[in-house]
Design goal:
The chain has 156 residues and is mostly helical. It has one domain (6-155). It has helices at 6-15, 23-34, 39-75, 79-88, 101-105, 119-144, 148-155; strands at residues 110-112, 115-117. Helix 2 packs antiparallel against helix 3 (39-75) and helix 3 packs across helix 6 (119-144). The mean pLDDT is 84.
């Protein structure tokens, strides 16, 4: 019988192994060139790797950004509000659960088709772009409101 949250914990334990399936592409590319001796097969594998890895970095950076955004929001959540929620019976985690992004963020040399890729740098570039968009959105909302928006912003 599964307890609540067991699937989540299992997911976290496996998260650090997410780069292992990408090694299959290395093997496929090696076989395409050495065993089958077909350049077009290698080109197909390379195109697939580029697409998959780009999507992987995009989704991973979105998840990391969302996690730390939730963590920042939870830190600034009013303690009285938390107490009122507990009194009313709302059971929520005041802080997001622990994650396993640290191991992925430490990856500086991911070998993929003979290339060494700095995963940390790619994720940082995407997160910086997300941060820039969020700040732009906040500024646009602030500038689009009347003077009462300033009072509301100060109280936050």
């Amino acid at each position: 019988m599964k307890r609540k949250g067991e699937g989540y914990m299992f997911h976290l334990l496996l998260f650090r192994f997410v780069l292992y399936p990408l090694d299959l592409y290395n093997d496929s590319a090696h076989y395409a060139l050495t065993v089958f001796r077909k350049q077009f097969l290698y080109d197909e594998v390379e195109a697939e790797v580029n697409l998959c890895f780009d999507q992987f970095v995009y989704k991973l950076s979105e998840q990391i950004f969302a996690h730390y955004k939730q963590l920042a929001g939870s830190i600034f959540l009013d303690k009285r509000f938390r107490l009122e929620c507990e009194v009313l019976g709302f059971n929520f985690h005041s802080y997001p659960r622990n994650n396993r992004y640290e191991t992925l963020l430490k990856q500086r040399h991911v070998q993929l088709l003979g290339r060494s890729i700095d995963l940390n740098k790619l994720i940082n570039q995407r997160i910086n772009a997300n941060m820039h968009k969020s700040v732009e959105l906040a500024i646009c909302r602030f500038e689009g409101n009347d003077i009462t928006g300033i009072v509301v912003s100060i109280k936050l």
